[in-house]
Structures are given as structure tokens and as C-alpha cells.
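Field: COMPLEX_INPUT
Field: COMPONENT_COUNT = two
Field: RESIDUE_TOTAL = 645
Field: MODE = joint
Values follow.
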Amino acid sequence: MRFDSGVRAPAPASGGERVLLLMSSRTYRAGSFIKAAEDLGIDVIVGTEAETPLAGQGSLHIDFSDPEGSVTRIQAFASEVPFDAVVPAEDDGTWLAAETSMRLGLPHNPPEMVGAVRDKAAMRELMLARDLPTPNGFRIDIDSDPEDLAGELSYPCVIKPRFLSGSQGVMRVNNPGEFVFAFQRVRRLIQQPTISGLGGQMGDSLWCEDYVPGEEVALEGMLNDGTLQTLALFDKPDPLIGPYFEETIYVTPSRHPESVQAKIVEITQKVVQACGLKTGPVHVELRVNPDGVYVIDLAPRSIGGLCSKALRFDQGDSLESLILRQALGQDVQGALRELAASGVMMIPIPRGGRLNAIAGVQAARAVPGVEEVIISVPIGELLVPLPEGGSYLGFIFARSDAPNQVEAALRQAHAELEFDIQSD
Amino acid sequence: MGENGQVQAGTVDYGREVSGGVGMIEITPEASAKIKDMLQASDRQGKVLKVAIVGRGPDGYEYSLRFIKPDDADPDDQPFQVDGIDLLVDADSAPKLEGARLAYVENAYQTGFQLDNPNPLWEDPLSQAVQDVLDQQINPSVAGHGGWVMLLDVRDDVAYVELGGGCQGCGLADVTLKQGIDVMIRQAVPDIKQVIDTTDHAAGTNPYYQPGKGGPAESPF
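Field: COMPLEX_OUTPUT
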């Protein structure tokens, strides 16, 4: 059969390995993955819904909103241009990677479990059914009248879409009035045309769960035949108490006591095992309080945005390099993060409006310990803050001897930045 | 030519060895009339027209046409007289302007001076070969996304490029570079072993694909 893909993929330059890298047009990670593949001598086919202008040279057009059709397309493509692994850059491609890998006989996570954990409702129901520590919650039909429900809830609680990430659409509510307002707000958000297509049936309901107080951490891990390898444990030193949950600073290594860190790893291992995840990166967010450790979120992918730049491993490996190597069957279990403390600040959007100018970037870069300041939003862009917004103004990266120094450098650099935002 | 004397890029190719002399630059009757008319202005009387190449842009050489006082001329400027108009040509630019034709265009689409330059953009064959790939294969493709790729330099076996327009800051710029630009240049010009992108992507103001989590949302308020 001649597969008319429109792609003229070159043979692997070195006769080596080839990876299908799945990424959407909104990816932050193209550069990091492409560079890692280049450094490793791996040939890459990029699977994306984007119309790439020079697509003849190794990209495959797929449609993330048509997963079954995309699986068929990838299988047909692979019959002519075989590859050795399918790697998702971000959330969009996790199920597609699992399903196609399974059909092609490549290492994979169970697609049904990957699909389940992408759904915040299904994931929590799965964990609650296994008596794992996660907030109690329930689904609320999108067509419900929030006035009817408001009086029956325990407060405070958290309402969130089932399918968005990065705290988009997540709101804490403290009383019935706030619940009604938040429900209507999140419903409007997920019914916007640009968003509704991302969730499919997950848009049929919202998820409402108990608010769990405590300090939040994020564990970046790699699964090797179901066994968790902790790559980094990040503290999130800014309090995440609502009403929105804007992620800002991540610092590693964690400053929590070793016993707490051990508990975090133990809980994470149990959760990924319960979810049937076997291989590849995993990003888990947890809350720690005197009562225990609670899983807030779990995703079978690596840390989002440009945050992976905060991680370096021995022999100079990037996180993307580890992911690609592991996907190709290499043993990365010995990989250790560098000794230095490291951190990233996702620059929050202070308010909505048109971004006119940014000042202080050079001063921010000059702060001792700061390695890079990346502004990822173009001047002139309309900024939408949480809970409706889905992007950051940029990223600040710092390294130093100790986590406290990293956190201080990030805060000082952020204080140097001034954003001229004009309300429309 | 506007008030600042800049001629828009994009209308020319250039450069051959030149020994100087009358006729190095041809001036069309329309351009000649316009220049003479402009020289009648009180603040331009006694001035001469200086022509220089000021850089390369995505559409070719970029030029400067300015009226200057003869006393302000650079000692190395090459003087010519064409159709009664006193011209000064920047010495470094002169070899790349031989045979150029200065026209004045006035139609529904554009108004202004236009330099048609028959000389190639690059003097060394390797750079020109890379430029040809950009002109004939790459830029016509990325133009569909409002983008362009400009060759900045070739040193040894490395081509340095800059991406602009919709390519600058695009979330998939690295894919375009590594899967497209790099491969196409190295295939067509085997002496080039590496293509390096020097673009300040953070300064992009209109990226075709903008990185961002989730979906683009509009504020409901």
C-alpha cells in the first residue's frame, strides 16, 4: 500500500533510531525536544495538527480532536516509515501515544488508564475507589442549576474543569454564593469554542472536591516498568489557597523533612501503580499537611511549559533527553539531577488587558543566581489571567547552592519586572 | 524615497566589480524628473544625492538615498553625474551598484523610488547558493505564515540565519528550522554543515503559533 501522507520522511541519517514526537501548535517544548533528539542523533518525525510550512521534511499532520482517526493515520504512516517510539511532548498527545504504541508493539502505558487520568473526575474516582489519599469529590452535570446544589455542599471546596491543566478554570469557593458564581464562570469557560473541543465528553460535567489545605509540591518522575524513579521534587513556596491557584515558583531540592519526602514518594508510587501507569515521565502534584500527603493531580507526561529547563542531569542530559532515551529502551534509572539547587518562576499575569511593554528584563537577568528570563508573550498580546487564561507571561530560571537562595533570586528578579498592561 | 531618504527593500539584486565612471547607475526619466523636482525645494538647493547600501533584508539589499551638502560627503564617496544630476555613491556600496537602475514608481500599489539591481546579494558563491535556497524554496513556503528567513552570514561551513515575521517567536520555529530550513539548505548546498538560528524569538510580535497551555480563552467579563 502506498500511504499518501504527503510526507517525504528522510531515512534515519545514521541508520539509527526514529521517534514520532507528538506536539500541538501551542507547545512550549518543540525546541527542547528537537535539540535533545539532535544531540542524541535520533531522527524525529513531528506529529502535529499545525500546518508546518516546510512539512515535506519529516512531519505528519494529525488531528488531536480526532484521536481514533489520528491513530489510523499514524499506523498507516508507520507501515511505510517505521519508528521506534512515540513520545508526547505534552498532555495533548498522551493518549494518542499510548494507543498507537500499543498497536505498534512499542512500550506504552495502558491507553484506557492514560485516558482516565487525563480526566480529573475519572482519575479521582479511580483513586478514591482504591482508598488512595486524594480529595473527596463528585461530578456536577454541566446543565445543573447551581442554585439547587449550593446549599448541599461542604465549604470550602474547589470546582474545576475535568480536562484543563495549569490551574485553568480551577476556583476555590467558601460559601453558596461563591459556588454559584464560580460554577457559572467555569461553565462559560469550558463552553467557549476554543476550549470546548479540547475536552469532548469531559465537558459534560465539572468536578467539585474538598479543599485540602497545606503546602504543595510537585514530583517529577520516570516510570520504569511501573517502578517510580524520582527525578526531582519541587517545593511550591507561594501559598496556593485560592480563590485561584496560580502556579508561580518551583524550587528543587525540596526543603521538606526527609520523612515527608519519603512519604510523598511512597504515595506517588502507590498512585501510579493504582492507575496502571508503566512507563515514561509522570508529573504529580501533592499537598502536604499534618494529616498526610494528598494527590491533587497526576499526569503521564513531564512538567509543563518551559519548566523543564530547570532540570539538568548528570552528563548534561536534559529532561527531554532522558524521556527520549527511555522511550527508546535505554536504561536511565541511574540518572541523577545535578547537585545545585534550581528553580523556575512562571511569571503570572497580574491583570487582564493588552500588553504594551515590559521593562526591567535586563535588571532581572542581572540578579545573582538568575540564569535566564524568557518572556513568552509578544508585545501587543491580549492577556487573560486565571482562571480563564491558559498561559504565562514568561519564565525566570535560577540556580544556586541552596533552595532558599534560588527562591530569593527568583523573587528579586520578578520584582525587577514591570508590565505595562492597558485595560481594553 | 521618504523624508528620511530610505528606499524600501525588496526590489533589487546586486553586485559586480566596478571601476566607477559615468553610467554606473542609470536613472529613468521619471526618476530624473522627480529628483530634479525635489532639488527645487528650498532646503535641498545645492545638495547632491547620495546612494548607499545600508544592509541586507529579507527581500534583498536595503538602500539609503539622501540629499546631502557636498561638504558633508565622505572623502571616499564616488561622484557621478547622470542626466545633469550630481550623484555620490558610497565607496563600499559602489561595486554592488554597478548597472543598477533607479526608477520612480507611482501606481495604485506603491509610490516611491525603486532600485533595480542586477548584482547578486552575496559575492562568495557559497553564501549566494544558500541565498538561492532561501529565495527559491524556503521563503516562498514560510511566506504563507507571514514569515521569512534571512541569511546573515556564512562562516566556514556554517550558515547563520534570522527568522522574522510569523516565524519569530513561533512555537514551532524549531521544527521549521530543523525539519525544514536546515535540511533543505544542507541538501542543496552540501558544503554547509550547520545552520544556526540567531533569532531573538522573545522579541517576536506576531508569532504564527504562540506557545500556551490549554486553550486560548476570552475573559467572560
